[in-house]
Amino acid sequence: xxxxxxxxxxxxxxxxxxxxxxxxxxxxxxxxxxxxxxxxxxxxxxxxxxxxxxxxxxxxxxxxxxxxxxxxxxxxxxxxxxxxxxxxxxxxxxxxxxxxxxxxxxxxxxxxxxxxxxxxxxxxxxxxxxxxxxxxxxxxxxxxxxxxxxxxxxxxxxxxxxxxxxxxxxxxxxxxxxxxxxxxxxxxxxxxxxxxxxxxxxxxxxxxxxxxxxxxxxxxxxxxxxxxxxxx
Length: 232
Known about the structure:
This protein starts with a strand and ends with a helix. The chain contains 8 helices and 7 strands; from the N terminus they run βαβαβαβαβαβααβα. It has helices at residues 17-30, 51-59, 76-86, 105-113, 132-148, 166-170, 181-191, 215-231; strands at 4-9, 35-40, 65-68, 91-96, 120-128, 162-165, 196-203.
């Protein structure tokens, strides 16, 4: 079994995924980790985006790199589940491929979870440079989450990278195919009474594209919070 699987969400990353991948690959090699990288580039059937071709080229002749390039049946949550399920590592880490989360934070959460005291380690965005709109929305998300799901003490439920032991992941039955997937992971962690640690990071602005989080996603998130609170 591979020690560390790094699942990168690459949806419509385009050419920007290449330098992100190169930096990550170099980092993992330098750290002498037994790793695999899972590049998730699912897309819609009639999309003209070139990300699938780019990630396939990156994976060519690299046995430690695999791709997940399916016709999309959902949004970020569906992509994440496909990537997590394709991984084989003892520890599974997931991160967005747009470069907003610092790549070296992958090693920080990995080192933390290998101490053996935690089932899940994640980051929280201690400093953010992605604009006031996103900062306010994130604040509302986390406030509502803490009200509806007390006791978890997570500062930033949507922050990545998240790393989880394979045993803990195998006990989760993730269903969210939309933007709620990070919150669902934390809800399961709460129910399973997982031991959790968080480390601070600096979250960068995305200079290459606009955010995928629209007003409809905000309403969707609030709706899901209420539904999951009733269910759980």
